[in-house]
Specification:
This protein is mostly beta strands. It has 3 helices and 45 strands. Strands 22, 24, 25, 26, 28, 29 and 30 form a 7-stranded mixed beta sheet that branches. Strands 1, 11, 13, 16, 17 and 19 form a 6-stranded antiparallel beta sheet that branches. The N terminus is likely disordered.
């Protein structure tokens, strides 16, 4: 009888287990019916940010075995700058210290966060573990060992590795966010240092999300809106999980995902897919389709209609613009260059979680160690923010070199907020150009290249204290090569000189990087090349010649990098005069200058000259001038006479030279 009871009990127990297992499988990634989420403490917010030649590798893995692996994608020549590991528990579980290990190292969390009382999320700086291992390995994808003491109690880990990458664009920015979004709707805001300008080929705005306890094919998903527009209705799932089970429900935009595209149909949720596709949304996004010209904030809104997904991580990468998330302080300009002992003004913009100006907040400005100026608070700091949320401080330095500057403010809710790092180059000296004031429009006090050490035209800068004056009264009519004023060091070569006006011609321009170029480029700096030619000898650079085909502004705000560049264009000139001297101006600048960016002069001293724009505010100021005669006609006339008589006109002429001339037509 006892045996029969035991057998009966075993059968009942097995049936109960099967029923329970079936129920759990159906309810993967859900919380029990009737459980009400508690209000959370905070949404996801910034825990790390950096700007420079950096790239980001992210990967996630959900598993129910005691040990597994997680991937890192190392670029060629890169080294680890920072590494962080995030983890999330399943519903109603904790995430104690030591519950997760990386490469055999049990982790004690730097931060833990209970999201709505439903999940516990953990965050740990693991740079000291990751860097020596990954730095010693070749480029490409490699793996690190991860382990969990309770695999069914942890939904998995996310590993974010920031690399110093010499091949990356020098103005990349990376922001990592951690916390927990409320399932009934939550926001985080991206604040930009300057308004969006579109189109901009150098601009990129990408974002990725990390989500746990989600199973798309169980009709569990989150909605993502950007600036009020739907970006996805299918965020979540177990893209990075090993199997359909609590303990393996994890996804993060990262290795193998495409951040340049978004879900094809942003309104389609997983319940509407047949068959269901867990990877319809890879949680890696391109934000540019959701921004407009002039935008200075990007609002991301998330909501989880199924009430059971844990959005606990996000990454943001930007190129071409500085950014911060939620309440923040952004310091501008991010890069600037000044002559020593000249004033430089810094602006710190303080915004709350909704992007509104914070008025009356004290902002401290400090020079960081390793700067030319002694480290510490700048004189006049702190400064209170004005009605626009801006705090401005002006300082100067008498020492050449580079300053690294940060601004900080203390938030009652978020604590100490630190800005991006602004770069200031202090230089001493000017290399003068080659045209005199009032002969052609010039920079104030003659064209000058400030010796900021960023970039210049040609292989070197000779540092002329006074301009090498173009000899106005010297006859250059028979010059057959470009008249380089500085012993051929100015960086421009003219193909096939002298030229025939209104014909296709080409030039080569050499741009050389100075010792401060890498620093300049790393903080978003660009080089712009412009070139003009006075093609009709009217002492200006603003005409369009050759029947509208040849503007005198023939290189127009071209973005260049150090190296050799070739430009082909129609030579702006006229063919109704004898040989004359075409005057060229080339400018390398830190900003676009437009058609009239050829320089400025004192209008009272030069009343008849066409004034331009952009003078002493230019960080590069590189300005080189050339003189080259135009061929004009293939025949050079020395005399031409007409004499009438006997109902006819007799024409007589003589030539000094004829080049490939066949005959004359009158």
């Amino acid at each position: 009888m006892k045996k029969c009871f035991s057998l009966y009990a075993a059968v009942i127990g097995m049936l109960t287990l099967l029923t329970l297992t079936s129920s759990l499988a159906f309810a993967v990634g859900t919380i029990p019916h009737g459980v009400t989420p508690r209000d959370g403490g905070r949404n996801i917010s910034s825990v790390y940010s950096v700007t420079g030649q950096v790239t980001l590798s992210t990967d996630g893995h959900g598993y129910v075995t005691p040990t597994s692996t997680i991937r890192v994608n190392k670029p060629v020549g890169a080294t680890v700058r920072a590494a962080f590991l995030g983890a999330a528990s399943v519903y109603n579980a904790t995430l104690p210290d030591g519950s997760v290990s990386l490469e055999g190292n049990a982790l004690s969390w730097d931060v833990t966060y209970s999201n709505l009382g439903l999940w516990e999320n953990g965050w740990k700086d693991v740079t000291s573990i990751v860097a020596p291992i990954i730095d010693s390995r070749p480029a490409g994808i490699s793996t690190l060992d991860v382990a969990e003491t309770n695999p069914y109690g942890v939904d998995g880990e996310i590993l974010a590795v920031v690399f110093d990458d010499p091949n990356a664009d020098p103005n990349n920015s990376i922001i990592l966010l951690f916390g927990g979004q409320a399932i009934n709707g939550d926001d985080f805001q991206i604040n930009l240092a300057s308004p969006i300008v579109l189109p901009d080929p150098n601009l990129s705005l990408n974002m990725g999300l990390g989500i746990s306890f989600s199973y798309n094919c169980g009709c569990q998903y989150s909605l993502i809106d950007v600036n009020g527009q739907r970006m996805s209705s299918s965020a979540g799932g177990l893209d990075d999980g090993d199997l359909i089970s609590d303990g393996a429900l994890l996804t993060v935009g990262g290795i193998g995902d495409d951040a340049t595209t978004n879900p094809v149909d942003p309104m389609l949720n997983p319940c509407q897919l047949s068959p269901c596709i867990e990877t319809y949304d890879d949680e890696a996004y391109n934000l540019i389709p959701f921004v407009n010209n002039g935008d200075q904030t990007i609002l991301v809104h998330t909501v989880n209609p199924s009430n059971d997904d844990n959005i606990f991580f996000a990454w943001l990468t930007t190129q071409g613009i500085a950014a911060a998330v939620n309440e923040s302080v952004i310091l501008t300009p991010t890069f600037a260059a000044n002559q020593i002992n000249m004033p430089h003004t810094l602006n710190a913009s303080v915004r709350d979680d909704n992007g509104n100006a914070i008025v009356g907040r004290a902002v401290d400005f400090s020079v960081l160690p390793g700067s030319a100026t002694p480290a510490g608070p700048l004189p006049g700091s702190p400064v209170m923010t004005d009605v626009n949320g801006n705090a401005q401080l002006t300082y100067t330095s008498g020492v050449t070199g580079v300053d690294y500057i940060q601004a900080t403010e203390t938030s009652p809710t978020h604590g100490l907020e630190t800005s991006n790092t602004a770069i200031k180059v202090w230089y001493n000296g000017i290399d003068q150009g080659d045209l005199t004031t009032c002969y052609y429009p010039t920079l104030v006090n003659n064209p000058g290249h400030v010796l900021s050490g960023i970039a210049w035209l040609g292989p070197q800068v000779d540092g002329e204290a006074t301009p090498h004056i173009y000899p106005q009264n010297t006859d250059l009519i028979h010059t057959t090569v470009p008249a380089h004023m500085d012993n051929f060091e100015d960086g421009v070569a003219f193909f096939g000189a002298p030229w025939q006006p209104c014909t296709p011609v080409s030039i080569i321009v050499q741009v050389t990087a100075g010792p401060n170029y890498e620093l300049y480029a790393r903080h978003g700096g660009h080089l712009y090349l412009n070139a003009w030619k006075d093609g009709n000898a009217d002492y200006s650079f603003d005409d369009v010649l050759c029947d509208g085909r040849a503007p005198e502004w023939f290189v127009q705000d071209a973005v260049v990098t150090p190296g050799i560049h070739t430009f082909t264009f129609i030579d702006p000139g006229v063919t109704n005069i004898s040989r004359y001297n075409g005057v060229f101006r080339f400018r390398l600048t830190h900003q676009p200058v437009g058609q009239y960016g050829f320089g400025m002069m004192d209008q009272s001293a030069c009343p008849n000259m066409t004034n331009g724009t952009f003078g002493l505010d230019e960080w590069l100021g590189e300005d080189e001038d050339y003189v080259m005669c135009d061929l004009q006609l293939s025949v050079e006339l020395t005399s031409f006479e007409a004499q009438s008589g006997d109902n006819a006109v007799a024409l007589r002429w003589s030539t000094a030279s004829e080049t490939q001339n066949d005959h004359f037509e009158l």
